[in-house]
Amino acid sequence: MxxxxxxxxxxxxxxxxxxxxxxxxxTLVGIGDDCAITQPNSKNLQLITTDLLxxxxxxxxxxxxxxxxxxxxxxxxxxxxxxxxxxxxxxxxSIAIPxxxxxxxxxxxxxxxMKPAKAxxxxxxxxxxxxxxxxxxxxxxxxxxxxxxxxxxxxxxxxGDEIFVTGTLGDSNAGLRIxxxxxxxxxxxxxxxxxxxxxxxxxxxxxxxxxxAKHKIATAMIDLSDGLSxxxxxxxxxxxxxxxxxxxxxxxxxxxxxxxxxxxKQAYKIALQGGEDYELxxxxxxxxxxxxxxxxxxxxxxxxxxxxITPKRKGIQIITxxxxxxxxRIKSYDHFQRRQH
Length: 341
Fold this sequence. Notes:
Elements: H1 9-20, E1 27-29, E2 36-38, E3 45-54, H2 66-83, E4 87-97, H3 103-119, E5 123-131, E6 137-146, E7 162-166, H4 171-180, H5 189-200, H6 206-214, E8 218-223, H7 228-239, E9 241-246, H8 254-263, H9 267-273, E10 280-284, H10 289-297, E11 303-311, E12 316-319, E13 325-327
Parallel strand pairs: 4-5, 9-12
Antiparallel strand pairs: 1-2, 2-3, 3-6, 4-6, 7-10, 7-11, 8-10, 9-11, 12-13
Helix pairs in contact: 2-3, 2-6, 4-5, 5-8
């Protein structure tokens, strides 16, 4: 077996699922979706998700404070629940604390965790603590619920389905760049602050996920944690389909447009390949388009139509600003490529 560092993350997950992921007891969905699903009773399905954050891989304490680390850790888990159309309920947290981490740091970390947790009605019910020789490790496990008829999977879409994303894309990617290497050019401070905060304190789209689930509109859904191009490729592979995305339709914030202009890059490229936006990518049947439009007009759903699901043989393509059809460059965050935040 090759070393873990030589394996792509998605391939590793598939390998583990195939060898060790046999479903037992009340488990309906195991490895491979945003959450595992169990059914303890006939009324609701139970959603379970977990995320592990490692210092030097997922965050850098040189430019990220303890409160922001905790905040983002909780949002990452809430976003998984959102992607299934669920409601979060309780969570557990485990932390391995290095010598450089003070009691004040621990308090700030938990204050960060609890802010989005309380706002979402989520209760802390347990966990574990340990020491760590050098780096901080943080793991959250979030439990939620969803009605059996409402749950949304990554699979289920069809050729001809329309592709939507919530919010704006690429802000977190730009925010990380700004935090790692503050730009020297005279970029408006308001844009820099907005983008930095979008990276440090993203939003989990729980209401959007629940709305789509309640009305059974989405045929498939995934949260954008690894970037639009990578997560779109993942959902297409799972469903054996292709996709075409119109670049001019990507929702891009004014702050990102300003930042991209000043650094001489195209905003859509940052949007395509940026990770940790924690927006929702979902698909709907064409006949659902009027309802989505009505929800947008009423302020119930902030979502943008960006493309269409196509036959697998066409691959994943983009329509460029010049109107040309080109293969999409797939770039997704991979924990085993030795890249650090």
